Amino acid sequence: MTPERLRRTMIFLNTQRAALVKDAFVYQPDCVIFDLEDAVAQREKDAARIQLYHTLKDLDYQGIERWVRINALDSDLFQEDIRAAVAGGAEGIRLPKTETAEDVQMVADLVDQAEVAFNRPVGTTMVMAALESPLAILNAYEIATSSPRLMGIALSAGDYTRTMHAKRTVKGLELFGARSQLLLAARAAGVMAFDTVYTDTDDPQGFIDEVKMIRDLGFDGKSCISPKQIGITHDIFTPDPKEVLHAQHVIQAVQANEAKGVGVLTVDGKMVDIAWVEGAKRTLKLAKAAGSYRGDLV
Amino acid sequence: MKNVLGRDIPAEFLTAGREVFQGQYYRDGYTYTKHAPRVNAQVKPGKDKLLPDIEAVVRATGLQDGMTISFHHHLRDGDYIVNMVMKVIHELGIKDLTVCASSLGKAHDYLVPCIEDGTVTNISTSGIRDEIGEAVSAGKLKNPAIIRSHGGRARAIEDGTVKIDVAFIGAATSDPYGNASGKGGKADTGVLSYMAGDAQYADKVVIITDTLVSSPNFPASIEGVDVDYVVQVDAIGDPHKIATGALRLTSDTRELLMAKNAAKCMYYSGFFKDGFSFQTGAGGPSLATTIFLKEFMDQANVKCGWAMGGITEPIVDLFKAGYIHNLLDDQAFDLASVASAHTDPKHFEISASQYANPFNKGAFVNQLDFVILGALEVDVDFNVNVVQGSNGLLQGAPGGHPDTAAGATVTIIVAPLIRSRIATVRTAVTSVTTPGESIDIVVTDYGVAVNPKRTDLLAAFKDTNIPLKSIETLRDLAYEYAGEPKDIEFEDQVVALVEYRDGTFIDAIKKPKWLN
Amino acid sequence: MQLKHKAIAGTLESSDAQIILAPNDGGLHIDLTSSVYEQYGTQIKQLLQQVCHRLNIENANIRVVDKGALDCTLKARLETAYFRAIDQKVDINWEALS
């Protein structure tokens, strides 16, 4: 598993549509999610799955992480979805409508079997769980700690708001509890946390506001449904030059003082200690991904 | 005989001083005598030059077998003039004509039967598409079509390579004495730039309009002193099809991505300075570059001295917002640019010769800092094809491509790497329109390639986030995804010659075998 | 495996291909229409033949309308039509498809 990797954006691609999956890497998302679930018509599930397999096998996605959203566990499709995804060599599988830790474990077992069957190194395929119901949110920590394969947990707001009898609003107050709970669970479990999609692609300002909010809350990234959301999200997750400079100073100062055994020091007029290094490194990594930091401190 | 790009031009076409292409500035300093028309003096007083209909006017010009007639394409897909005039000529049984058009497309399909029965045996054009493109590709035209750039066409008319006997000029408005304009009337085209040379160099000049206005119709793009006859018809074109066609401001993320990278290349090039000049093509991604220019102009705190070319609404918007000081217009592409032409004092009409003719002494293309252009194909030597589809069919237009590319300090091509399954960047282009020495940067959705001879640009882009790749890498990526295309097989028959702007031949296009 | 009935897969969208697979009694017949026929027609036919060979499709009429699909899509559409024609939905031997 590579928890170090940036996953600011994960864009859903309808695997049924050949034109969409052939080269979505040009939009430079951190991850793509080949969707076999909601976007695919019921009678085209087989076609999408076979297209998925060949897309994974034949096309070079230029280092962009490839995830597959399988069909839900109450369907009769997800087992074959997992086999196709693993056989094709997907980096990860996103499980929709996860309710319990056992759901993840069942998927992980099937992934085990598929890895053996298709000669892939056992344990390399990651799993991500999408939480879409009140029960799932209450079980967030158990889900987040359910399997060594589990890379992160993601909120999926559509079903959640419906079952909560809530109304989906632009400000998103109705999701505040779920977002907080999911983040707490992810951080406590040491996995990543991803926010839900923003469905109104004609409202760029609403999208910008939401991404800023979830960045400030602490999410690692956002699920996207349109390529135009990718650049916006990356820009928002890119630290400003002042933050980058400060992060560099923190790391350099702490490194310089480590040898001397000094624990607490002052950088740019603020008290810092060794615990700040982790945050500073995260800042530099984000800046590096955006091209605004080219140094070698991370 | 092979030219400097290795393209074979059959010797039979290298007569009467015709040469093969030898480099973009080969004819710098070339000396020639300008062609002069034979003019019928109009001495007697009078207030109009009106004739009742097209047939009367064709008869009055004395049009005969073997002559050359000319048309423009300012009415774009809404043009009625070409078909209207050709029908009359066809019925009169005149044969063996040369049609010298500024561009030909789907509005001009009546030329196809004229080609098939020998009414038209030669074509010279800056664009060749749709049914006419297919007919010429199939070898139905008796002699090879000559494909010329806009600047090359103006040059050929002025240096006498083309001698126009009768110019048929559709004009939005005219007074009875032939002062004609692209402005006003029912089929407003804003400007008539491509006909300025035709009016001055043709032996006979005919104005066809649907809107007669009282004299003087000033400012006049075509002046009455050059005009023999005026004829009024019901309609010269369909106004709804004049302003549409190629143009739309894209919302496609992929095109926007390329456009942003093109604008970024301008910004970091070292030439993005106050008072800079630029031109963009009308294709989606090159047009979209203008969206990002404003942002980069703010960032660099610079303004644009002048923008040129086919003028479009996004350009007019920047002009009105004070980001561009002057517009030099040789073609108004949409309603906003038509409305602004002449009406806004700093929106100037220029002639095709002023725009791009390499043989005059002041073409504006020579002063361009940047041009953003499209491409059907680009090869690893940076040669560009905008005339011929990858299946061998004629389906494009050089327009001002070779002219602006040769003139501009920084020439940027913007094109998707793969269209459907067709690779844009490839080992060799099907035919060359613009030589690689004119091309500096190729922006694709898979990355940006800089011509290695532009070491200055490579250095300027080094520490930026422009996704640089070699042109060979782009070609390899295209082939990896699309598969390497099989070479198209051609017959020996040459169906079109691509004339470089200076009059040399840059390529000869043959009939694809599959068209048999 | 013997085709049980006629089956269709794919669409006529750009970058896709529509493939109709029908059983017959006498050999493999591929009828290809393609927007990129001049450049890729031969390659596409070869590819489809390879897929048929791997899947042991010996007696079939295959009608392909290609809109510039990449190889991976052409393979996927033919295989989809095949699995539909033999009514197989699960336990696909994925590794045998490449």
- The radius of gyration computed from the alpha-carbon positions of chain A, rounded to a whole number of angstroms, is 20 Å
Mind telling me the C-alpha Rg of chain C?
12 Å
**Average pLDDT number of chain A:** 93
Oligomerization category of the chains in this entry: heterotrimer
Indicate the overall shape of chain C: globular
Poorly predicted runs of 5 or more residues of chain C = none
Tally the helices of chain A: what do you get?
Answer: 12
Strand content of chain A: 15-25%
Spans of chain A of at least 5 consecutive residues whose pLDDT stays below 50 are none
Strand content of chain C: 15-25%
Main pleated sheet of chain C: 4 strands, mixed
The CATH superfamily label of the largest domain in chain A reads Phosphoenolpyruvate-binding domains
Total number of distinct structural domains of chain C: 1
CATH fold-type name of the largest domain in chain A? TIM Barrel
Structure description:
The complex is a heterotrimer of chains A (298), B (516) and C (98). Chain A is 45% helix and 17% strand. Chain A has 298 residues and is α/β, with parallel strands linked by helices. Chain A has 2 domains: 9-237, Alpha-Beta Barrel (TIM Barrel), CATH 3.20.20.60; 241-290, no CATH class. The mean pLDDT of chain A is 93. Chain B is of the alpha/beta class and 516 residues long. Chain B folds into 2 domains: 49-241, Glutaconate Coenzyme A-transferase (3-Layer(aba) Sandwich), CATH 3.40.1080; 253-488, Glutaconate Coenzyme A-transferase. In chain B, 25% of the residues lie in helices and 22% in strands. Chain B has helices spanning 54-61, 81-92, 111-116, 130-137, 150-158, 196-201, 239-242, 253-268, 284-300, 313-320, 335-340, 352-356, 401-407, 455-461, 471-482; strands at 50-51, 68-71, 97-101, 120-125, 145-147, 166-171, 173-174, 180-181, 204-209, 229-232, 276-280, 304-311, 324-332, 347-349, 370-373, 377-379, 384-385, 410-414, 418-419, 422-423, 425-426, 441-444, 447-450, 490-499, 505-512. In chain B, the strands form 5 sheets. In chain B, strands 1-10-9-6-2-3-4-5-24-25 form a 10-stranded mixed β-sheet. Chain B has an 8-stranded mixed β-sheet with strand order 14-13-12-11-15-18-22-23, with helices on both faces. In chain B, helix 9 (284-300) links the parallel strand 11 and strand 12 (304-311). In chain B, helix 8 (253-268) crosses helix 9. Chain B is globular and about 70 Å long. Chain B starts with 49 loop residues before the first strand and ends with a strand. The model of chain B has no long low-confidence stretch (mean pLDDT 95). Chain C has helices at residues 37-54, 71-85; strands spanning 7-9, 17-23, 28-34, 60-66. Chain C is globular. Chain C has a single domain, classed as Ribosomal Protein S5, domain 2 (2-Layer Sandwich). The longest helix of chain C is centred in the middle third of the chain and has 18 residues, at 37-54. In chain C, 34% of the residues lie in helices and 24% in strands. Chain C has a 4-stranded mixed β-sheet, covered by helices on one side. Chain C starts with 6 loop residues before the first strand and ends in a 13-residue tail after the last helix. With 98 residues, chain C is an alpha+beta fold. The interface between B and C is medium-sized, with 15 and 16 residues.
